[in-house]
Automatic annotation (TrEMBL):
GO terms for molecular function: structural molecule activity. It holds the Pfam family PMP22_Claudin. InterPro entries: Claudin, PMP22/EMP/MP20/Claudin. It is a multi-pass membrane protein. Coiled coil: none annotated. The chain crosses the membrane at residues 75-94. Belongs to the claudin family. It comes from Lates japonicus. Gene3D superfamilies: 1.20.140.150. The keyword Ligase does not apply. It comes from the Eukaryota. The lineage of its organism: Eukaryota, Metazoa, Chordata, Craniata, Vertebrata. This is Claudin-1-like protein. Keywords: Cell junction, Cell membrane, Membrane, Signal, Tight junction, Transmembrane, Transmembrane helix. Its main location: other.
């Protein structure tokens, strides 16, 4: 089993990765289009924004009207967020610096490894 410092470093890096995934999922700048010199359109997974000096954003009206790429990307990003959140909980239980399962050292290391594998999959 890795040292507590390495486990904490990995945990905090995974936490930063989860925060970045959440931020990327809800950003509007997935696709940019420029119409002329001043008017621009930004499209995201959840809404589209357009404007020149003042930007207005609207949520996508229907899930069925979206292209299949956007629907698939939504699903993959949400699955990644869910798996990362579950992996955070699982790896917290398996880390050396926590008091969960102190008497079961082998189970604790297995739990930490499962949490790490879940992070890799996410």
């Amino acid at each position: 089993m890795a040292s507590s410092g390495m486990q904490l470093l990995g945990f905090f890096l995974a936490l930063v990765g989860l925060a970045a995934t959440v931020a990327a999922t809800f950003m509007v700048e997935w696709k940019k289009q420029a119409q002329g010199k001043t008017h621009r359109i930004h499209e995201g997974l959840w809404m589209s924004c357009s404007g020149n000096e003042r930007t207005t954003c609207e949520f996508h009206e229907s899930l069925l009207k979206l292209p299949s790429e956007v629907q698939a990307t939504r699903a993959v990003m949400l699955l990644s967020i869910f798996l990362s959140a579950v992996a955070l909980l699982v790896s917290t239980v398996g880390m050396k610096c926590t008091r969960f399962m102190d008497s079961k050292v082998e189970s604790k290391s297995t739990t930490a490894m499962i949490g790490g594998i879940m992070f890799i999959v996410a």
